[in-house]
Amino acid sequence: MKKLGQVLLIERALMVPDPDQPRQHFDPTQMKDLAASMRAAGQQTPVTLRHMPPGSSHPYKIIDGERRWRAAAMINLTHLKAWVRDDVGSDDGAYVASVVSNFARADHTPLEIAVMIARLRKQPRIAKLSLTDQAATIASILGRSMAWVYQYEMLLKVDPAVVELMSTSRPLSERLSPLLAPMLVAFEPTLQRKYAAEIIAQRMPLRQARIFLDAQAHGRNLRVGSRNRNYPQRRHERFVSSLSVIVREAEDILTMPHPLFREMVLSRPQGDRQMALARIDAAMEHLKELRQAMLPMLKAPIQGPLKSHVRTS
Fold first, then answer.
1. Which of 102, 208, 239, 274 could potentially form a cystine with 204 if both were Cys, beta carbons 3.0 to 4.6 Å apart?
2. All structural domains of the chain with their residue ranges
């Protein structure tokens, strides 16, 4: 087993957050809850750090765990458990590692996700690819489909006031779906704000909101959204992305330091451990069935829409 770092107890003052990390919004209520949890039960998950070059203001920079770092300050906790990774050296490598660690959590704002995707496109190993291959690589990293990547990228073209209406900090009844971004960008900012307000005021379901925007665009001779109905291709993208998530998550667990893995498992009651093992067994059976189903198709010719890889907008 290759050693990728070690878990240490490190003084909080020796760590510095990464100003370029994907998460920029820290919900005050959630931070209070986290601080209360750490005060009551201690720090359950180490922060992830990387070494900084000699002469830096701090010897360690945070890859993952700025929320825990902030919460520690709220309860005057001076030292934190930390996993110091030896396999991350460059800022680009640290950013990708931070994206993978942070994205598993569901409370990113839509704009944070859009900015994250834009910056991933600029990573050296991704930037050299074609635009389509860039989207495919990012989709694989994030465990999503290429269509999902394109939809969130559209947010960078949506009026900032409308993007704010999509914030996860807003109540669901007052929140606009980010999936409407590809349609909204067809309109000028004033109309984007007007239609977004109408959708929220009337509490339109997603399907109704899409019909509404399509009707508004038709009346103005505008084309909205994507006309690509290549559903088999999209399903395949989602299929491959799902498999990538399984592989990546398994690799993350297998490279976890043994003390961390042991602590994670033993912190749960026996019933939870048995359930986890049962899910592993079930996953192996399902993957075996998928493999058996695909084997006869390996040399079959391409059929129908799967021949097309052109994305229209």
1. 208
2. 5-105, 158-219
Write out the two tokens for 137: 């690589």
Check: CB of residue 230 under 8 Å from CB of residue 204.
no
CATH number (3.30.365.10, 3.40.50.720, 4.10.220.20, 3.90.1530.10) of 5-105 reads: 3.90.1530.10
List pLDDT tens digits, range 35-82: 998 898 889 888 888 888 888 899 999 888 888 999 999 999 999 999
The CA–CA distances, whole Å, from 231 to 78, 227, 235, 291 equal 53, 11, 6, 22
pLDDT the model gives residue 312:
38
Evaluated on CA atoms 262, 264, 269, 270, the torsion sign reads negative
Quick one: how many helices (H) and strands (E) in the chain?
Answer: 14, 5
Token pair in block for residue 144: 């999503």
Backbone angles phi, psi at 9, to 5 degrees: -100, 110
